[in-house]
Design a protein that fits this description.
Layout lengths: L3 E4 L3 H10 L8 E4 L9 H4 L3 E3 L8 H17 L2 H4 L3 E2 L2 E5 L13 H4 L11 E2 L16 E6 L4 E3 L1
Parallel strand pairs: 1-2
Antiparallel strand pairs: 3-8, 4-8, 5-7, 6-7
GO biological process, one term: retrograde transport, endosome to Golgi
Protein name: FAD dependent oxidoreductase domain-containing protein
Organism: Trichoderma gamsii
Length: 154
């Protein structure tokens, strides 16, 4: 049996190993990562947050596929219990005004912005949708970005 070496242990590398494991023994799959610390790249920075369409338009098809695969895998493998997969109602909170500097999140890792600015569909929150622990003052804006159909956490 041939051995397979996968470079990178982010979500893509680990997903590749997971699906490859269905076709060859795990002892023939080797993961290599050059990072000196855990969670030091995009997968780690995402902190377990999954979004279906918070990306540049040319990346949306890939993001949708990834989101649906996470959802399908969680359903098939009892992800709710095994790795705490859950749908997530996502809100945008802006204290007394717009996002800092008005920047959007096209390159959120490098620019230190938020991907929430990429989402076009927003609406004012309804009672019960905003977490009770979120303290607000008059003038703050809270909008529902996603009702749980397009965002999740792991």
């Amino acid at each position: 049996m041939a051995h397979t070496v996968i470079l990178g242990t982010g979500v893509i590398g680990l997903s590749t190993a997971f699906y490859l494991r269905q076709h060859q023994p795990g002892t023939t799959i080797h993961l290599v990562d050059s990072a000196q610390e855990l969670f030091s790249s995009a997968s780690g920075y995402a902190g377990g947050f999954l979004a279906k369409d918070w990306f540049r338009p040319n990346l949306v098809p890939l993001a949708e596929l990834s989101f649906e695969e996470h959802k399908k895998l969680a359903e098939e493998e009892n992800g709710k219990e095994r790795w705490a997969y859950a749908k997530s109602v996502t809100v945008s909170y802006e204290p007394n005004g717009p996002l800092l500097g008005g920047k959007r999140g096209e390159d959120w890792l490098l620019e230190g912005t938020s991907r929430a600015g990429l989402v076009e569909a927003r609406r004012e929150h309804r009672d019960g949708e905003v977490p009770e622990w979120l303290r607000r003052v008059d003038g703050d804006s809270v909008n529902v970005i996603d009702d749980g159909s397009g965002t999740a956490i792991v």
